[in-house]
Amino acid sequence: MEHLKISCAQRVIFECITLQDSESVDLAMSLGRVLSENIFANRDLPPYDVSAMDGFAVRSADLFNLPATLVIIEDIKAGDMSTLTVGRGQCARIMTGAPMPRGADAVIRVEDTREISHDTVQITIAVKACHDVRPQGENMREGDVVLTKGTEITPGVIGVLATVKAAKFSVYRRPRVAILSTGNELEAIGDPVNPNKIPDSNTYALMAQVQALGITPAMLGIARDDPAELEQFLKIGLEYDVLLVSGGTSVGVHDYVRPTIEGLGVEMKFWRVAIKPGHPLAFGKTDKTFVFGLPGNPVSSMVCFEEFVAPALRRMMGNTKQYRRTVTARLAHAVKMRPGRTEFVRVQLSADDAGYIASSTGTQSSGVLLSMARADGLLVLPSACSGFEAGAQVTVQLLDGTVFQECPGFKE
Ligand code: AMP
Ligand code: MG
Fold first, then answer.
1. Which residue of 10, 33, 275, 398 has the fewest CB atoms within a 10 Å radius of its CB?
2. 144: CATH
3. Which of 179, 180, 184, 186 is the best mutation target for the ligand 1 pocket, counting ligand atoms within 8 Å of the beta carbon and taking the most?
4. What is the domain-level CATH number for residue 116?
């Protein structure tokens, strides 16, 4: 059976998935969402010329002979509107953010002045017009597009939205995601411990990976390796926008996911990807659901989620950056591999003056989930190579954080 290259599989997935509809969201609940509309400035900001400093609003032409002694005609605080006009030999005491009075064209900060009496001040430096004045509209002009459709809402973006009084706006809807584990050997978290069984960890690791993208998934539970039971569960899963099924996608005689899922009308696009861990990765669709068949091995399931499911979910939510951030690191020790599939090695990262250092989290068996639990990132070994020496420069995909990038950033 054909093993797709990672990039081919990603392309097939991206060609199938569709952008979610829009919904309205409150500003306070919008962190991490993606705008599905352009946002405009509702006024000029600042709305008039304002002082950038605490100091004195002056006429720059008055400062040719220093020190210049000026008469203070008023105090202007932020929020005040000045009523007087600053004439020759005059100035106004002004606070940061307060509107410039008529007649004045520059601000002298307090540190460059000496107050002689309550209403006279000596200015000790000369400045040009506009010095320490923030002009009207410097920040934004009424009618400007300040944020474009597709912008991911970060704390800085929230600040801009609040600035333009966008209390509600439209964002892409989050997909509804269902998670299903399959296997006779699986023991649910609430079941008593049975030494012959395998605890179901995939449901929860996948749950957390979905949650990390801001989505609350539905956990459907465990389906036994029985076509009728599997069909029942899969039917429920096919009511969602995205269904993640783990286990049962290999070619074992009790791996019923493939025939059952195809029997339910899911159009499968591929069943194998040239990736390690995780090659039994499947993807298909109905007219309303995208289905990922993830490997049962706990590490494989998580790695496949990161490489294929997370980018798909992010794209559905309108994110233009889908891929985990990659960094360059040097290897603390040699790593070996058999060429053929792109390998993802779980590593910890430390750093010194020369940058990041990557070291393996230990045994890389796809059943050893602790290798994932301890990992900061996935070291990518391109499929054509047979390993790297200690000290080699390698690419590591970070497993944590909210910063993503537009391209995968590694050679497969
Ligand atoms: P499968 O893909 O069904 O052949 O499963 C491969 C391996 O992953 C087997 O050792 C399973 O016991 C294990 N496995 C499958 N599903 C889960 C799960 N939900 N949690 C933990 N291990 C699993
Ligand atoms: Mg199984």
1. 398
2. 3.90.105.10
3. 186
4. 2.170.190.11
Question: For residue 1, is it within any domain?
Answer: no
**Segment 325-367, tens digit of pLDDT:** 999 999 999 999 999 999 999 999 999 999 999 999 988 888 8
Residue identifier of the C-alpha nearest atom 11 of ligand 1: 296
If asked whether residues 100 and 207 sit together in one domain, one would say: no
- Average pLDDT for residues 70-74, to the nearest whole number? 97
Percent of the chain with pLDDT over 90: 90
What residues form DSSP beta bridges with 170? 24
Number of domains present in the structure of the chain: 4
Residue 230 confidence class, pLDDT cut points 50, 70, 90: very high
Residue 250's pLDDT band (cuts 50, 70, 90): confident
DSSP single-letter state for residue 307:
I
User: What phi and psi, each to the nearest 5 degrees, are found at residue 59?
Assistant: -100, 120
In a domain, 29, yes or no: yes
Report the candidate in 295, 297, 296, 318 with the shortest Cα–Cα distance to residue 308: 295
Instruction: Answer yes or no: do 190 and 282 share one domain.
Output: yes
Decide if 237 contacts 243 (C-beta within 8 A).
Answer: yes
Domain region containing 358: 323-405
Say yes or no: 150 and 206 in one domain. Answer: no
- Asked whether the predicted pLDDT for residue 254 surpasses 80, the reply is no
Distance 224 CA to ligand 2 centre (A): 9
Task: Tell me which residues have their CB closer than 6 angstroms to ligand 1.
Answer: 181, 183, 185-186, 198, 200-203, 246-250, 252, 295-298
Do 41 and 146 fall within a single domain? Answer: yes
Of residues 400 and 302, more confidence is placed in 302
27 and 160 both lie in a single domain = yes
The stretch 229-258 carries a mean pLDDT of 91
> What DSSP string runs through 118-186?
TTEEEE-----TTTTEE-TTSSB-TT-EEE-TT-B--HHHHHHHHHTT-SEEEEEPPPPEEEEEE-TTE
Residue 266, both tokens: 């899911």
Same domain, residue pair 247 and 206: yes
Ligand 1 centroid to residue 202 C-alpha, Å = 8
